[in-house]
Structures are given as structure tokens and as C-alpha cells.
């Protein structure tokens, strides 16, 4: 699985968009980009994933650059409940392979 | 919504005890996983299972065993608990879909303390 690089921490004002970057310059053509988050003392929560195209769901948007070497997770209107550690994971879709969670970005939403 | 339920949120056991951690998922997923999470070490895979009665070792299986007698249930067993098994234990399940990518869904976790 390709290595990812994320900033260790970020702040965001409540109600504003939170843009969380992820670099994955060694990504290969069959690797997906996944985003999870983990709120303190809870299990990781799936947010969104994509291969090439930008994706949007009820939680967030995922913007993947054309060369696929980086991506951005966008939380359009951050709330205090979005304070969590956000993990960007790049992996091939294989049958039941594990997810390798790195250190992620600790996002703090400020009132 | 996918639901992965772990039987306990907090557990305190004594050294040498046999410990059972239970996990149940309600979405008919083939794949189930047990991870442990420790500060600074991230999530590490202990065991996983592709199907009923099938199990595969992950990165750190020593001191653990697993059981999958039914598709929806995956149990982690600590045969003789030790203090270095104090950790947060996370269960996950997934349905592999090569078109949409496979998504792992996690339980809330069990924080185990071994005294």
C-alpha cells in the first residue's frame, strides 16, 4: 500500500469548511484513497473513498488531483462533533486485507 | 446502517485469566477482523477471518486465538491474559466489492485492562 503524508494537526472554526490534505505521491493505478476518522475513545468511522473521480456523500467531499498524488477531504460546515483524528489510507482493494492506519491529522474545531 | 457490536466497552481482568471478547455484525459480511490500538503504535491486526471457521494470523497473533463458528460472530480469546495485553481492542467487518472498494466498519472498541 502506498505511503501517505498528513499534517499532524489542524484547527478549524466552527461553521467553516475544514480542508484536510493528504499526499500519496507513490499511489498506483489500482489503489483507492480512503478516509476514516476516530473520535476519542471510539472505533474508527468510515467517511468516504474514491479511485479517480471526486466523490461526495452526506458526510464529506473527497477531491483527488488529476495525477492522483494528493487528495483533500472537505467537511463543508465543521461542527464541534467533527473534532477527531482523520486518517487518509491508500490501498488496493483486496479480499479482506487489513487497513493500515498511520498517525493521521488531529482536527480541532474551535467554537 | 452497518452495525458492529462489541460485547463490552470496558473490561478489567486479572493476570492469567482467560478472556473472551465478542463481536457481532449484522450485515452478512464475509470478512471480520480484530485489531488492537496502542498509543504511538496505531492499529495493529491480530487475526482476521474470510469465512466461517476460517482464520488467518495478522501481524501480532501471539497470545491470542480466535473463533468464528457463525458468520456474524467473531470472538477473540486471550488464553492467559498478561499485563502487556492491556489495550483498546477493535473489531471490524467488511464486504469486499471489487467495483466499489471494500470498506471496513468498526465497532466502538473494548478497553481491556489486565491487572
Can you walk me through this structure?
By secondary structure, chain A is mainly beta. Helices cover 0% and strands 47% of the residues of chain A. Chain A contains no helices and nine strands. The radius of gyration of chain A is 13 Å and the shape is globular. Chain B is globular. In chain B, a hairpin with a 7-residue loop joins strand 9 (87-95) and strand 10. Chain B has 115 residues and is mostly beta strands. In chain B, 0% of the residues lie in helices and 55% in strands. Chains A and B meet through strand 4 of A and strand 4, strand 5, strand 9 and strand 10 of B.
Distance between the termini of chain B: 37 Å
Strand order of the largest sheet of chain A: 1-9-8-3-4
Biggest beta sheet attributes of chain A: 5 strands, mixed
Q: What integer is the average pLDDT of chain A?
A: 90
Structural class label of chain A = mainly beta
**Number of helix segments of chain A?**
0
Number of helices of chain B: 0
Strand coverage percent of chain A:
over 45%
The helix content of chain A, as a percent range, equals under 10%
What would you call the structural class of chain B?
A: mainly beta
Secondary structure: elements and pairs:
The complex is a heterodimer of chains A (111) and B (115).
Chain A: E1 9-13, E2 18-23, E3 31-38, E4 45-50, E5 55-56, E6 61-64, E7 70-75, E8 84-92, E9 105-110
Parallel strand pairs in A: 1-9
Antiparallel strand pairs in A: 2-7, 3-4, 3-8, 5-6, 6-7, 8-9
Chain B: E1 4-6, E2 10-13, E3 19-25, E4 31-38, E5 42-49, E6 56-57, E7 64-70, E8 73-78, E9 87-95, E10 103-106, E11 110-114
Parallel strand pairs in B: 2-11
Antiparallel strand pairs in B: 1-3, 3-8, 4-5, 4-9, 5-6, 7-8, 9-10, 9-11
